[in-house]
Amino acid sequence: DIVLTQTPLSSPVTLGQPASISCRSSQSLVHSDGNTYLSWFQQRPGQPPRFLIYRISTRFSGAPDRFSGSGAGADFTLKIDRVEAEDVGVYYCMQATQFPFTFGPGTKVDIK
Amino acid sequence: QVQLVQSGTEVKKPGASVKVSCQASGYIFNEYYISWVRQAPGQGLEWMGWINPSSGATKYAQKFQGRITMTRDTSMTTAYMELTSLRPDDTAVFYCARDDRSGCDYWGQGTLVTVSS
Q1: d(CA A9, CA A23)
Q2: Which of B32, B45, B68, B109 would you mutate first to test chain A, the one with the most A CBs within 10 A?
Q3: Residue range B33-79, pLDDT digits in tens
Q4: How far does Cα B24 stand from its chain's mean position?
Q5: Is B76 helix (H, G, I), strand (E, B) or coil?
Q6: Residues 6+ apart with CB under 8 A from B24
Q7: B15: how many CB neighbours lie within 10 A of its CB?
Q8: In this structure, how many other beta carbons lie within 10 angstroms of the beta carbon of residue A62?
């Protein structure tokens, strides 16, 4: 199975400051169809995950534009330009290139 | 608007089975896979498998093979996930999500399944 490693696992941030989460895969996530099926989710306490970014960098409808995704191959990053209070939660990367699909362990973002 | 509405909380004894439903609305049911994801208390997300509502074809994570069955009723636009031989460590919130491989874009509210004697 593909293992996704996220760093950091915890990220205390100051409101208005940027935050960055790394997601590294145990192998390339480039699919034979040429796409890279790496997505990002936000999960607030007590809620289901919320879809933010798909195929590395495409923002899902309704996701704030302060969220951006980048990367290639096996190395990916989620950035939050200026953290707001509502961004507190756990962020997960997920790969859907190879079965079984797998998630990273999650990165907890909270306010300093 | 796209909505996935799941069945309610379940309490089961070890060895029992549970069947969770996920009713979809607001889109053409047959055009998107339904993935099922498990989240144990205080833990991360775990993909269990998915079903193609159009064909009924399924793909399960090896970890659940032999214990899991995903089905669908297209007339009811509802997907189901049945897990058998439940153990206490199966206690979790189970989510369904609409999936087109690019990602799980809409999620159900989650169903808590508690396994306890």
Answers
A1: 11
A2: B45
A3: 999 999 999 999 999 999 999 999 999 999 999 999 999 999 999 99
A4: 12
A5: helix
A6: B2, B3, B4, B34, B77, B78, B79, B98
A7: 11
A8: 8
